[in-house]
Amino acid sequence: MNKALQLPRPFTKPAWLQQLQWVADPVGYMETAARTYPDIFQANVVGFEGGLVFVNQPQAIQEILTRDTTIGSRVGLYKAPGDLNRILAPILGDSSVIMLSGDRHRRRRQLVMPPFHGERMRAYGELIGELATMAFDAVPLNQPFEARVVTQDISLNIILKAVFGMSESGAGSDRFQNLKYLMTQVADLFHSPLSTMVLFYPGLQQDWGAWSPWGKFVRDRQKLDDLIYLEIAERRAESRTDRIDILSLMLSSRDEQGEPMSDVELRDELMTLLFAGHETTATAMAWALYWTHRKPEVRTKLLQELATLGKNPDPMEIFRLPYLTAVCNETLRIHPVAM
Fold first, then answer.
1. Which domain holds residue 50?
2. Domain stop point among 71, 89, 110
3. DSSP string, 78-125
4. What is the secondary structure of 230-254 as a DSSP string?
5. Tens-place pLDDT, residues 290-315
6. Residue 120's closest CA among 231, 236, 243?
């Protein structure tokens, strides 16, 4: 950030107190600031030197997100340096695509993007539909249930089957269940402001034994790593070419020099998919269920739109439904899962 840039600062309290308020109640923090400065403001949160600039004005947001980051051989107006995501390194590692910048980021994107195109997306869409149907078929009728539990089960099963290509039955069922359990345990770090604080304050990252929050996290992470590296090793050793899961496709990817990803790079990308697609997706789905049931007119219109596709619709047709897209986008606007 340009240090000469001077922007409104809605809070005059010390930086450490702002950070504490942000961690404890990020939505309340943002709403208070935006009421005072609705278009743009600067704040000292999450430990970035000089603070962060928050942009709320729609045209300015579009400019930032759509402007090319390079102009010819020169660096453009905006860039997204990976080192700004260092707060997530204890979970994702140092080699994840979101930790990289410049040429390293470009090379990694070329390696990880092929699984997310064409017919593969249709196959993943069919799997997602099947798993979601199975999860809700298991919910008892006419009884209260916790939506977050159901959506978390859906997101976990999708990741383990679409990303890892694992099955909950047969020879690999034990590893499937162990990975599912450990992912939930590691994700517990985000379940409360108090436990999340260890990411924002490195001084709290002290291993005082398995009973301490950070100590438990470190041990659960190691168990999860062991299972992931074992899966990578076994997948490298097998000769199957018919797999379409994301891990297999990343194993076969090569960069411009013909080089594959290392085990560490694969581990970090898998952890990114696990945690970018697990907690966040489950939370978003739970809020979508909440709002479509709180507003019956929205639910009715949504069901009417889905009914136009008939039975067993193509996943890509579902993806292109305009009202469903609007419902998803509005859910994420009201409840941004990153915070």
1. 15-110
2. 110
3. ----GGGGGGGHHHH-SSSGGG--HHHHHHHHHHHSGGGSHHHHHHHH
4. HHHHHHHH-------SHHHHHHH--
5. 999 999 999 999 999 999 999 889 99
6. 243
